[in-house]
Recover the amino acids of this structure.
């Protein structure tokens, strides 16, 4: 009877192989074979000739002079180069040893090499350690807001943290009270799905873009459109306001990102280089001031002054649908169906992969406490510790009554200005607000964390 062989996945086999290698080469590398005395003496002599060859004759002459004068005093420290003190063998004429030099410096006597114990004491190298993640309380659903008649595609919170706006496939922009969740205002003007929103911190302006190729500036004192930015040849999927200067960045299906003067409506730069839809654009005050992610699987870092690409990151293998900049660290993250990657500015140095969210990741958000959230096209929410990349919570957004199971996708998300509330917009036409569980402690919700050998870090 043929015995069945247990089949293991490739991941399991690679993990076992790595663990064997780890045990063999890391844990026991401090235990080395003992040196042969003759080999050790030969090594010292070669080192002495290589390092002190130019002064060997002078030292030899000094020693002979001392011998003839029958001097009984100790030699000066800088001339303390003498023959190898070995009982078993004597060095050839002219051969010198470095061991007495080291021992003369330290004030210890020279050891006698033996065949049973090596003179070299090696300190075992510690195995590389992976830092333990910070503890974060779990997040739970606090409120579900209904009101839109189509997929809710975008969200933005105003700088005063009193209200937020959402845009949807029903072509309406709605303004909601953040504390109560009540509708304050509806703005109509787009003739197709609204895909991007941004609220200015220095002006009473709201900016919106949509699949109708329009980019609009709304005056919130009069609740009407005061400017249009014309130039995109197809749907506009993303927009971002520069934090310190009055420029607006937009990107869309025509494969370009455009930089606009907020006041004059002039198209300052057209950032060309991507070969497919630009799904996400973000801006920051420091270089690179503009970063774009595209369906061509690349991320580009742009020089805002020159309007040219300074770096192209090609690490992703699938379309990059979302970018997010950390609010306090000089870093950003990118999301793709293969994994989420973290990068360090300004050159875009790769930091680490955050693997496990195996779906189309439409959106991400990060707060100052280091909680990174990613939202998937299948309604999954993954919460990560930014520093270590540890996934401390996973949840599934509940589909509202009357919606199909396929309408569980999360299209956009953002934290409020305090970082304590998470707002998501979804395919079931609802807006959901999540908050941290205030009753949770490290004892009630411990970190179920184990260091992974396969985890590669480049800090």
């Amino acid at each position: 009877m043929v015995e069945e062989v247990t089949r293991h996945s490739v991941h399991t086999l690679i993990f076992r192989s790595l663990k064997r290698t780890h045990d063999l080469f890391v844990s026991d590398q401090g235990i080395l074979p003992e040196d042969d005395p003759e080999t050790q003496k030969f090594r010292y002599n070669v080192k002495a000739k290589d390092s002190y060859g130019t002064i060997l004759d002078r030292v030899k002459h000094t020693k002979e002079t001392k011998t003839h004068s029958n001097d009984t005093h100790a030699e000066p420290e800088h001339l303390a180069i003498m023959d190898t003190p070995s009982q078993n063998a004597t060095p050839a004429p002219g051969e010198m040893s470095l061991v007495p030099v080291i021992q003369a410096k330290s004030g210890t006597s020279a050891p006698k090499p033996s065949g049973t114990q090596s003179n070299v004491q090696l300190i075992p190298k510690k195995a590389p350690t992976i830092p333990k993640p910070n503890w974060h309380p779990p997040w739970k659903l606090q409120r579900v807001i209904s009101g839109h008649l189509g997929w809710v595609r975008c969200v933005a919170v105003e700088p005063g943290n009193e209200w937020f706006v959402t845009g949807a496939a029903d072509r309406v922009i709605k303004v909601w009270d953040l504390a109560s969740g009540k509708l304050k205002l509806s703005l109509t003007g787009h003739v197709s799905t609204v895909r991007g929103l941004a609220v200015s911190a220095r002006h009473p302006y709201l900016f919106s873009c949509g699949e109708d190729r329009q980019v609009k500036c709304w005056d919130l004192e009069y609740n009407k459109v005061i400017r249009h930015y014309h130039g995109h040849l197809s749907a506009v999927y993303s927009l971002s306001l520069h934090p310190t200067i009055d420029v607006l960045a937009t990107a869309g299906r025509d494969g370009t990102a455009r930089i606009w003067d907020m006041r004059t409506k002039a198209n300052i730069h057209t950032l060309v280089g991507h070969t497919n839809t630009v799904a996400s654009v973000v801006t920051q005050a420091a270089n690179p001031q503009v970063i774009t992610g595209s369906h061509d699987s690349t991320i580009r870092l742009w020089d805002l002054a020159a309007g040219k690409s300074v770096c192209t990151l090609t690490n992703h293998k699938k379309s990059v649908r979302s970018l997010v900049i950390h609010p306090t660290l000089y870093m950003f993250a990118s999301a793709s169906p293969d994994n989420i990657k973290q990068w360090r500015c300004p050159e875009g140095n790769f930091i680490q992969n955050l693997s496990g969210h195996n779906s189309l990741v439409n959106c991400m958000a990060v707060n100052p406490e280091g909680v990174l959230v990613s939202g998937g096209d299948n309604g999954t929410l993954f919460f990560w510790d930014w520093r270590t990349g540890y996934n401390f919570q996973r949840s599934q957004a509940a589909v509202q009554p009357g919606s199909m199971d396929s309408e569980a996708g999360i299209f956009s998300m953002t934290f409020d200005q305090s970082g304590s509330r998470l707002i998501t917009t979804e395919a079931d036409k609802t807006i959901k607000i999540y908050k941290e569980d205030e009753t949770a402690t490290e004892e009630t919700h411990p970190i179920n964390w184990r260091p992974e050998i396969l985890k590669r870090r480049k800090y």
The first helix runs from residue 10 to 27. The first strand starts at residue 139 and ends at 146.
